């Protein structure tokens, strides 16, 4: 849409808005007609079904059935029940302010609805805030099965969701069927279905029984029901003055603004030309001022609990929710009438804006015909085998069966049109290699997202263009292909079908014979498919596609595009500068190459050259581009392609080109409607293109009137109003060809069906009767003080209004729903509609300089620009300079999830204001983003059992009853040990935390999560004598220093150990601080964390032979030693026993050492060997050679005190 186009803005409705005052003071506002559910019981379902057919479907007006609040269970249809039974279910709520979705649980949303509603009542201006206030609408969620069953038991069965049979129990044609309680019972008689969606197999049906939960300020934008279906909406519960929990609430209700079906074209044009929005897109909630100035009747109602609203097909409407809470259930029904409207009008409109089709209308036609054919055969067989003539006559005269026959005929005509559109050309050879895909109703058009019934085009070259792991086929419907939509290959398509064509033709012939059997030979009797095709004067869709596949180019997108010849050499030559005699520059002329002229034509109107296959040539020789014909003459490409005798606008005498504007024979054509344009590329498949018409361009430049003209001055609106008035001039009646009307002859009027809402004493004064009787147009007073006039269906008899001034009364005219307001004259209700400010467009250089410039100036500026671009190219700024010269800027828009972006920027972004509800599924803003595991399980360690070999060198035995317990409290089997393994992320967090100087801060990981237990942090919080930095010469040491060269064995090692005892004791208190990582001394092993503090101590000591054997055993620097001891003086005792060497050596520092999946950070590791003190993780550094001595002479004393010593993950020593 052009940038200069003004659009109406969103204007909220005030919480204290008075609807009754609006209706009384606005001429084009009337209340929706309403009846009571008790009257349905009194009049019968047949009369009610006829009322719905006449008033809602044929007349196209909304209807309300009230009184169901007393029939629905208050304990089931309540917020408490919904929270208790479905509170944990996750749904996507619509955040209307941001136009995004928020995942949350139903219970979380229900519990916070009071906060969301109260924000609009806090002060007098909060409701006007349209940018920051949260408006969260939980819509289109699945209806609970319990609610569905209870609604089905109370509502009229023919109006309910997926009704399969409208016949009466035990009616004509009813058969015995099993009863739920056992035995047999009579089923329903043969009749048509209330909802034709039920004809589809269960897996193909669209589930549209939905719930809508909203609070004050939420709304549904102006829209029409999908695929021209019938809408049904009942409010099952709403907030009252006091809630179930005793807290105060705001009474809940919903305000509906509705129109009638016959005004749909007027409403659409008013939305386009006056408000600047397209009602097919469903994004705009119209202001009250817009409804006041609308040139059509607006039906309003404030829906409260128990109100059941019937919405006519294709009738635009919008809804505004009020109060703390509103709970509604809605669904749609498909009938024969809605199918006709869908295939003729709704689907083409939806295809233009790429609105997906969910109801599979063509498939419904096919499967319903199959179902109805079987029912009619069953009725015929029962009639032939009836035991008595009376039963046969009952079947023959049944109104339900006769209506079934008429619906069958109407569906057959729709099916015939579907098959004819898919018929190939009889003159062309049969298509070969047609791909067959069995029908499953899941193939949709890649561009318009419409459901494809049978034949379509598929591109085998684009399957891998998206870069997905699996091939993604590109399928396009025939309708879109005739509009110029396709993938980049344009014409490299092959045919595909989902039904065998012979099977469809056989079905057609079977149903055609059945059609003739029902109606007999008539002038309009359907012919065979071949005869019907020969009788057509136009081409079929399939035939058009066949021709276009031959005309359009075949482009292989998988191959690199051939180098294009420069435009100066191919299409245009360089402008030659020529001068006149006086030296002035002549206007340069564009020269095209012969090849370009042969492959491109110039349009008669726009004068631009297009490729030949993108244009159409008339018999007069003029060429026209499809874009001009679409925007300027309201002609779709398919309308031109299917007509072999098509005449151009010039031949029709309505050309608007500059060449014909002075021709007296030409009367310029004026577009009949406004086109705003839609960028469908954002919705369609990424591989899609538009080659014939750019549907994102509007036709505003083709319109004569200004877009700001008042509705009464807009010729397009006036034309639409006149068409609507002509359609309303005919009283709704039952056509004999389409309906059966034996029980209640309508005679062209609705007045024959007498619906009353109350019984009033006829002796009462008529004025009083008007005041208290809703049936006569007076207001109905509810117990809660709500006053709303109940509009009735039909005007009361004139005798009942004797003595009343007809002009001063308030009542509804029969059949038209228009009310006469008491004491209101024709008044001016014109109100300013708020619009968005117009963005300033960049003016061209010529306009900015005050007019046209000379040719010499153009040449000079062109040379200056060329030099500037050359300099910019050298400096690497060519793109920016080129854009600046053209007055453009390149804005790169990244499509990011708003919630992910908010979390990424949470550190530098301020807290959002007015945020009352956050998702209970997504992490809070500012929290760590968890990408690998759900919240709460990131740093949890996992217990794992590992097999442990028995240590034959160490004879300590463990008591039998002291085997450790596993995580479940059970004794672990012998030969296994349980260790804990943590995540990699927790290890990284520990590394980061371990490098911090403050020990207290090191105890907390990212996001405040603890790494070690609290008692350990408190116990070692005062240890400040450990090293806090590495030695200055640590880089000079080798990555893994060699073992000590003076290692001795046996008694020599004992002497070496004894000689180092004093040095180790004296150096054990060396100053130092925390080292990032474990400190490894060459030739030393690390003693790990205590695993089994309850283990028994060793009761046996090794002899000298064991010591010699241990001295001969090879040292392993990578093995970790775990000690079952928590004594604080463990390091000192090890040192006293001669286990630590005090030699000055270079040390290497390896990565963080982990024992049993947990970090062991030595806090007080000394800079010299042997200066080791107990750490926070009970880790010590022990010389390997000294440890061999432990196995020798000193093992007995240490084992008794320290317990079992094991080497981590391997054998005990």
From TrEMBL:
<feature type="region of interest" description="Disordered">
    <location>
        <begin position="933"/>
        <end position="1125"/>
    </location>
</feature>
<feature type="region of interest" description="Disordered">
    <location>
        <begin position="721"/>
        <end position="740"/>
    </location>
</feature>
<feature type="compositionally biased region" description="Acidic residues">
    <location>
        <begin position="568"/>
        <end position="581"/>
    </location>
</feature>
<dbReference type="InterPro" id="IPR003347">
    <property type="entry name" value="JmjC_dom"/>
</dbReference>
<feature type="region of interest" description="Disordered">
    <location>
        <begin position="835"/>
        <end position="861"/>
    </location>
</feature>
<feature type="compositionally biased region" description="Basic and acidic residues">
    <location>
        <begin position="946"/>
        <end position="956"/>
    </location>
</feature>
<protein>
    <recommendedName>
        <fullName>JmjC domain-containing protein</fullName>
    </recommendedName>
</protein>
<feature type="domain" description="JmjC">
    <location>
        <begin position="168"/>
        <end position="350"/>
    </location>
</feature>
<feature type="compositionally biased region" description="Low complexity">
    <location>
        <begin position="1051"/>
        <end position="1074"/>
    </location>
</feature>
<feature type="compositionally biased region" description="Basic and acidic residues">
    <location>
        <begin position="1029"/>
        <end position="1038"/>
    </location>
</feature>
<feature type="compositionally biased region" description="Acidic residues">
    <location>
        <begin position="1113"/>
        <end position="1125"/>
    </location>
</feature>
<feature type="region of interest" description="Disordered">
    <location>
        <begin position="562"/>
        <end position="584"/>
    </location>
</feature>
<feature type="compositionally biased region" description="Acidic residues">
    <location>
        <begin position="978"/>
        <end position="992"/>
    </location>
</feature>
<feature type="compositionally biased region" description="Basic and acidic residues">
    <location>
        <begin position="963"/>
        <end position="977"/>
    </location>
</feature>
<dbReference type="Pfam" id="PF02373">
    <property type="entry name" value="JmjC"/>
</dbReference>
């Amino acid at each position: 849409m052009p940038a200069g186009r003004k659009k109406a803005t969103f204007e909220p409705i005030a919480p204290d808005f008075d609807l009754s005052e609006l209706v009384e003071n606005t001429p084009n506002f009337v209340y929706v007609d309403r009846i009571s559910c008790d009257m349905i019981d009194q009049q019968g379902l047949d009369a009610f079904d006829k009322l719905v057919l006449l008033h809602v479907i044929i007349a196209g007006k909304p209807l309300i059935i009230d009184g169901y609040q007393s029939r629905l269970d208050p304990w089931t249809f309540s917020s408490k029940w919904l929270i208790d039974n479905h509170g944990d279910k996750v749904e996507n709520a619509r955040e209307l302010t941001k136009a995004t979705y928020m995942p949350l649980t139903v219970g979380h949303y229900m519990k916070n609805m009071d906060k969301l509603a109260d924000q609009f009542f806090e002060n007098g201006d909060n409701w006007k805030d349209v940018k920051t206030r949260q408006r969260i609408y939980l819509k289109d969620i699945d209806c609970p099965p319990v609610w569905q069953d209870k609604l089905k038991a109370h509502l009229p069965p023919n109006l309910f969701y997926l009704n399969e049979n409208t016949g009466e129990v035990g009616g004509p044609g009813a058969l015995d069927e099993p009863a739920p309680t056992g035995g047999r019972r009579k089923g329903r008689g043969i009749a048509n279905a209330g909802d034709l969606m039920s004809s589809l197999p269960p897996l193909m049906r669209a589930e549209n029984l939905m719930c809508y939960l909203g609070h004050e300020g939420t709304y549904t934008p102006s829209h029409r029901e999908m695929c021209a279906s019938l809408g049904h909406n009942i409010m099952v519960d709403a907030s009252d003055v006091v809630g179930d929990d005793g807290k105060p609430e705001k009474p809940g209700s919903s305000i509906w603004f509705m129109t009638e079906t016959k005004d749909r074209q007027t409403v659409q044009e008013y939305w386009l030309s006056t408000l600047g929005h397209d009602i097919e897109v469903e994004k705009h909630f119209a202001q009250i001022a817009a409804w006041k100035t609308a040139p059509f009747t607006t039906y309003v109602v404030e829906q409260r609990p128990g109100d059941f609203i019937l919405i006519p097909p294709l009738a635009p409407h919008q809804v505004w929710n009020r109060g703390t809470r509103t709970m509604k259930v809605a669904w749609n029904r498909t009938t024969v009438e809605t199918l006709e409207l869908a295939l003729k009008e709704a689907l083409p409109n939806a295809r233009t804006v790429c609105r997906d089709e969910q109801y599979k209308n063509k498939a419904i036609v096919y499967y319903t015909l199959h179902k109805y054919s079987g029912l009619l055969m069953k009725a015929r067989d029962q009639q032939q085998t009836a035991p008595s003539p009376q039963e046969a006559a009952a079947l023959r005269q049944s109104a339900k069966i006769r209506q079934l026959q008429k619906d069958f005929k109407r569906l057959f005509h729709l099916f015939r049109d579907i098959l004819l559109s898919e018929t190939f050309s009889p003159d062309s050879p049969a298509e070969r290699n047609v791909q067959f895909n069995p029908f499953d109703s899941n193939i949709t058009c890649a561009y318009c997202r419409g459901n494809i019934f049978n034949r379509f085009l598929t591109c085998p070259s684009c399957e891998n263009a998206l870069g997905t792991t699996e091939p993604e086929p590109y399928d396009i419907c025939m309708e879109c292909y005739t509009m110029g939509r396709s993938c980049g290959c344009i014409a490299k398509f092959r045919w595909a079908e989902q039904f065998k064509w012979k099977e469809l033709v056989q079905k057609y012939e079977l149903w055609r014979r059945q059609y003739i059997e029902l109606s007999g030979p008539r002038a309009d009797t359907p012919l065979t498919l071949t005869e019907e095709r020969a009788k057509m004067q136009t081409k079929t869709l399939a035939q058009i596609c066949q021709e276009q596949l031959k005309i359009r180019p075949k482009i292989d997108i998988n191959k690199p595009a051939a180098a294009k010849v420069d435009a100066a050499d191919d299409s245009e030559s360089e402008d030659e500068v020529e001068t006149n005699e006086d030296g002035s520059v002549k206007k340069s002329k564009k020269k095209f190459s012969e090849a370009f002229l042969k492959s491109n034509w110039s349009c008669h109107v726009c004068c631009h050259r297009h490729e030949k296959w993108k244009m159409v040539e008339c018999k007069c020789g003029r060429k026209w581009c499809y874009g001009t014909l679409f925007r300027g003459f309201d002609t779709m490409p398919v309308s031109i392609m299917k007509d072999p005798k098509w005449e151009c606008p010039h031949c029709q005498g309505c050309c608007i080109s500059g060449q014909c504007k002075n021709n007296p024979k030409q009367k310029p054509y004026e577009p009949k409607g406004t086109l705003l344009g839609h960028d469908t590329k954002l919705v369609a498949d990424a591989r899609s293109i538009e080659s014939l018409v750019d549907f994102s361009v509007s036709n505003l430049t083709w319109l004569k009137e200004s877009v700001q003209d008042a509705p009464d001055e807009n010729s397009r609106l006036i034309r639409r109003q006149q068409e609507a008035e002509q359609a309303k001039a005919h009283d709704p009646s039952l056509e004999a060809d389409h309906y059966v009307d034996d029980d209640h002859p309508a005679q062209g009027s609705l007045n024959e069906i007498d619906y009353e809402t109350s019984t009033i004493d006829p002796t009462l004064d008529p004025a009083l009767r008007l005041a208290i009787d809703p049936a006569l147009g007076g207001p109905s007073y509810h117990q809660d003080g709500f006053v709303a006039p109940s509009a009735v269906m039909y005007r009361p008899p004139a005798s009942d209004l004797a003595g009343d001034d007809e002009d001063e009364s308030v009542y509804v005219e029969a059949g038209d729903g228009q009310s006469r307001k008491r004491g209101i004259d024709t008044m001016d209700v014109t109100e300013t509609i708020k619009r968005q400010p117009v963005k300033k467009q960049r003016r061209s250089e010529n306009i900015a300089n005050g007019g046209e410039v000379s040719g010499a100036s153009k040449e000079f500026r062109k040379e200056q620009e060329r030099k500037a671009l050359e300099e910019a190219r050298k400096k690497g700024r060519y793109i920016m300079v080129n854009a600046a010269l053209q007055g453009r800027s390149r804005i790169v828009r990244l499509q990011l999830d708003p919630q992910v972006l908010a979390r990424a920027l949470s550190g530098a972004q301020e807290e959002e204001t007015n945020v009352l509800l956050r998702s209970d599924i997504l992490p809070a803003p500012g929290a760590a983003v968890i990408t690998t595991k759900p919240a709460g399980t990131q740093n949890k360690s996992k217990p794992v059992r590992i097999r442990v070999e028995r240590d034959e060198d160490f004879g300590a035995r463990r008591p039998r009853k002291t085997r450790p317990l596993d995580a479940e409290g059970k004794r672990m089997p012998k030969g296994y040990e349980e260790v804990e393994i943590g995540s990699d992320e927790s290890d990284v967090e520990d590394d980061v935390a371990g490098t911090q100087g403050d020990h207290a801060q090191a105890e907390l990981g990212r996001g405040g999560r603890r790494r070690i237990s609290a008692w350990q942090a408190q116990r070692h919080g005062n240890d400040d004598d450990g090293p806090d930095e590495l030695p200055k010469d640590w880089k000079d040491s080798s990555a893994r220093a060699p073992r000590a060269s003076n290692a001795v064995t046996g008694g020599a090692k004992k002497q070496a150990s004894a000689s180092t005892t004093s040095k180790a004791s004296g150096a054990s208190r060396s100053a130092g601080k925390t080292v990032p990582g474990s400190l490894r001394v060459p030739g030393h092993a690390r003693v790990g964390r205590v695993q089994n503090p309850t283990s028994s101590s060793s009761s046996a000591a090794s002899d000298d032979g064991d010591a010699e054997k241990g001295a001969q055993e090879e040292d392993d620097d990578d093995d970790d030693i775990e000690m079952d001891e928590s004594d604080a003086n463990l390091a000192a005792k090890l040192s006293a026993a001669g286990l630590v060497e005090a030699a000055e050596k270079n040390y290497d520092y390896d990565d963080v050492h982990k024992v049993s999946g947990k970090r062991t950070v030595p806090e007080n590791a000394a800079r010299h060997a042997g200066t080791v003190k107990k750490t926070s993780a009970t880790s010590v550094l022990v010389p390997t050679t000294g440890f061999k001595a432990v196995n020798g002479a000193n093992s007995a004393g240490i084992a008794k005190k320290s317990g079992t010593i094991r080497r981590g993950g391997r054998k005990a020593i």
